[in-house]
Amino acid sequence: MARIAFILLCHKDAPGVVAQARRLTASGDFVAIHFDARADPAAYATIRAALADNPGVTFAQRRHKCGWGEWSLVAATLEAVRAAIQAFPAASHFYMLSGDCMPIKSAEYAHAFLDADDCDYIENNDFFNSDWIKTGLKEERLIYRFWFNERTQSKLYYASLAIQQRLNLTRKVPADLQMMIGSQWWCLRRQTIERVLEFCEQRRDVMRFFATTWIPDETFFQTIVPHVVPRTEIRSRTLTYLIFTDYGMPVTFYNDQYNLLVRQDYLFARKISPEAIELRERLGDLWAGEGVPFAISNEATGLFKFLTGRGRIGQRFAPRFWETEGALSRGHTLNIIVSKKWHVAKRLTQAVRYHTSIPAVDYLFNEENAHLPDMGGVEKTVEKRERHRRALVRLLFQQFRSQKLVICLDPSALELITDFCGDKADTRLLLIESRFDDEYLRGHIERVGLAGKTTQPELVSRLLPTVRRDLEYEADRLRDMEFPQFHTIGVNRSVEANAAVLAKFLDIPAALAHDLAATEHLFSD
Asked: pLDDT tens for residues 217-271?
């Protein structure tokens, strides 16, 4: 059976550290503690005294003064790892934790999980080709040297960087390493840890390189582990659940989020608020539980993004997600079908293609299969189409050799719709009004990742009113924009009424419009 040596980096909350160490060792596992040398000496003394008689706990022999973004965090981790390797020969896995982490599964579940697959868990994305770094320095982290901390020595930090950039004082990445990046929260097998430590002893050049790299806790282990372990034995993920806000700060969890956390496909979570006493107690009890079933649904991240994306007044427009490059020519008519129920809009475009000569494509910015013509490869992936959206539509007019074009957009794409309506072309909007019953909403919640198949029904029921209002609001804001050529059809209107609107929207004869409006099961779910 797997036995885990937890590498615990902490700098505060001495009672919490003691409780965590006792909890983790009570299950037969081990803990190696590095307590920040900058922290309160009295707190460290308290921890040492409280855990002195616990054979499952050891301490890093050397304590480092840790600073965010500095090599000191990696150095502290290595000190705790060395202590754990020496003190706990029975440990099969080594798991990075912070003082803000808590288990969201039982020890029984965690051991069985690790026994099921002989592998290492560590995020390792290609440093240069992935988009793991969202903002700030990227390549500069590696090619320049960083001796100062951005947060505590900002003037020296930026002055040093500016001098190196001005004088072109760059350095090369070690030639035999493929630089990788990912979360610092990993779980590695004993043999992997031993290989990493051996690498550290043999490759002093690499150690010197990382010692002046910026934020090396996101690159050191992530680069070295794939260098010393076959890629087939690595799972590029973390077993510690965390969410980041738009500002790059980790989300903190509180008492009422217990059920949400335990349904995630992870073993631990951070950050758990120190004030969330009830949550900490329940998660602590959970770690000691036996025979506890876990229904994994993984909806937490999608739910967080959905709720925070609604903005300060409860709603937020979709972000500007396309480039205003080029323009659609005068004399062209762009007919935009807007519908939340994509299958309804696609039934209408299929009917347009069948009954008329007007080219009609589906959700070209959302789905790969959107009935696009051959466009030299740009049509192959949604990613390529998203780069220059207005230019893509202009190209569609050319490829179809038509003055008219029908496309489908989701009502959430308000700024994109607004941009098209502000272009030189004759842009017409057709909103398909839909009813959102509970059955549809439950399916929508699952499709967008707000809940999974095993999510508790009462949680989904609580979401229904919020999601319904959100979908209705998307249609309302389109109406409120008062676009000059705005039309609506819907299930509550007669075929004749819908046909009259379609005739005007597409500028087609009434009889042809009636054929479109009478499409079988047009509005059916």
From this structure: 999 999 999 999 999 999 999 999 988 765 566 788 888 888 889 989 999 998 8
DSSP conformational letter for 110 = H
Instruction: Specify whether the CB–CB gap between 213 and 74 falls below 8 A.
Output: no
Looking at 245-388, which runs of residues are DSSP E strands? 268-269, 333-338
Q: What size, in residues, is the chain?
A: 525
To which residue do tokens 């107690």 refer? 281
Element spanning 234, H or E: strand 234-235
Of 23, 191, 186, nearest in space to 107 by CA: 23
Q: How much is the pLDDT for 327?
A: 53
Cβ atoms within 10 Å of 72's Cβ, excluding its own: 20
Report d(CA 226, CA 175) in Å as an integer: 15
* Whole-Å CA distances, 304 to 273, 294, 333, 449: 17, 21, 39, 10
Compute the Cα dihedral for 362, 365, 369, 374 and give only its sign: positive
DSSP 296: -
Q: What is the Cα–Cα distance from 82 to 434, expressed in whole angstroms? A: 62
Q: How far apart are CA 72 and CA 158, in angstroms?
A: 19
Give the mean pLDDT of 160-166.
94
d(CA 9, CA 39): 12
Confirm if 455 and 462 have CB atoms less than 8 A apart. no
Q: SS3 for 374?
A: coil
In the prediction, which pLDDT does 329 show?
62
Q: Residue 514: CA atoms inside 13 Å, Cβ hemisphere, count? A: 4
**What CA–CA distance (Å, rounded) separates 145 from 164?**
8
Nearest alpha carbon to residue 16 among 289, 287, 272, 255: 272
d(CA 57, CA 83): 10
- Residues 4/110, Cβ–Cβ less than 8 Å: yes
State the Cα–Cα distance between residues 143 and 165, nearest whole angstrom.
10
Number of Cβ within a 10 Å radius of residue 447: 9
The pairing of beta strand 268-269 with beta strand 102-103: antiparallel
Residue type (1 letter), 63: R
Q: Please give the model's pTM, rounded to 2 decimal places.
A: 0.64
Classify residue 333 as left (phi > 0), alpha (psi -120 to 50) or beta.
beta
State phi, psi for 138 to the nearest 5 degrees.
-125, -90
Q: What is the pLDDT of residues 441-487, one digit of tens each?
A: 888 777 767 777 777 787 778 788 888 888 888 888 888 888 889 99
Dihedral sign computed on CA atoms, order 439, 345, 372, 407: negative
Q: What CA–CA distances, in Å, run from 200 to 58, 125, 177, 224, 228?
A: 22, 21, 14, 9, 11
| Most confident residue range from 16-25, 126-135, 273-282 | 16-25
Nearest Cα residue to 363 out of 401, 395, 406, 324? 406
Residues 316 and 310 sit within 8 Å (Cβ to Cβ) = yes
